Amino acid sequence: MIRLFFFLFTVCFLLSACTTAPKGPENAVNLTAQLEKVAEVHQWQMRGKIAFRQGKEAASLNLVWKNDSGDFDFRLTNFLGVSLVNLNVTQQQSVLEADGETYVDALPEPLIYQITGMVIPVESLLSWVKGLPLDGDKFTLTELGLVNTLESYCQGCRNWQVAYGNYGSVELDDGTSVWLPHSITLTQNETSDMPKTQLKIKIYQWTL
What we know:
Distance between the termini: 37 Å
Strand order of the largest sheet: 6-5-4-3-2-1-13-12-9-8-7
Helix content: 10-25%
């Protein structure tokens, strides 16, 4: 089945691959100022790895994700750099290319479900990957004032839980900087119609 496409690949790399993890802030962060800065980051690119696990099925792939105010290109490649999945989303349509096939829909969520079987709230995830809770999300903070965990509230988010780690300072265009997570784990507990799902994202580079 096409929806199992992701899971037919052997796990080539672990997310704990040898990289230097950011050390994070030495002093407490002003949470209000931090979240305001993060909310203003509308153009970004991340490079790293993403691991999927749903029930007994799993895969780990390279990730390049470019976002421009909600229009984005999400690309997964193998260890040779060969593109396996490319999802391009604009205000007009969403196009997903995988296994030599092209799928088109008005929204990205149906395409992702068709390929992976996972229900992923893409619009919310664009904020969550930056460590930015949405209105109504419940969240906790680290000892130094950065978002540590959050639990989704938005309709259709299906109770996703997000945990953050390895915050690093990333430079903005104006010469200032903002703290962004380099390790993100999203978990959705088992339901009557879906096994437990987990996504782990290890970010090696943020570009703003």
